[in-house]
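Progress against Task 2.4 (sequence-to-structure conversion) is shown through the following example record, which the project officer requested during the mid-term review.
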Amino acid sequence: MLMVVVGKSNGIASPVQPFTTYKHSIELQENVADLWWTVDADAQEIIFELHVKTTGWIALGISPGADIGTGWVDQAGNVHFQDRHAFNFSRPVIDNTTQDWFHLQGREQNGWTCIQFKRLLDTCDSMDVRIRSGTNIVIFAYGLVDPDLSRQDGDISYHDDRRGTRMIPLQSYGNPPSEDKFAGLDSFEFRLNNYRVPSTETTYHCKHKALIDPANRDIVHHQLVYECDPAAIFDDANLPEGLCDEINPQIELCTTNIASIWAVGGDYVCFFNAKKNNAHIEFE
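Structure tokens generated for the chain above:
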């Protein structure tokens, strides 16, 4: 049995206090962008508050589409907010159908721009993206300067690499537990180095490498990782351990499905679920 603990943190970097209390919060980009939000199921609307470390414009959107709320705070402290829509990789244009993103309040403080805004979960606007149950693709971006509306070309500047994407279940988000919850536990770190991500919408790629202490290489011949039946129940404080033949009655529900195998001479083990009902394992 393998127990994996993945640490999660919703650490917030913004030094500015949010305008109100929210149900959820997440750090979109470390030390750069933070997001708070609350879903009002009765009103079928969602209230966001976005903080970004910039004195320029900031934007939050729902993709694909993409439906974007863009705003900034000018030198006089006035908040400007626009409902925009982006086609592919072009500059977002102002929504010419209906205004569905509404700013509530905003401010600039300590080098951060902070704006509170809201929209309906489903605006019924062809240029908007519905916030569905389940996972939503949330995008954000920001610029270094405010648009100059007095100029004909005073639109928002290009964000360059000042942008990001997060997959967030906005309507059913579970706030990560405190890091204290994992104190005293061992952790596993998973990395996929220099992996070229395919252009397909969804890709499943897995691999693992057996880490054998050099001092023990001459006594380790092979390793098997089994999947346990969901009906198996164990006491985490007293897991079965010993010679397999002797503890077989205790682990019987974990001896039928082999997840992976490593043997002497093997290196990385890669799994490619290329097609449904046509999965295979490749040993390198």
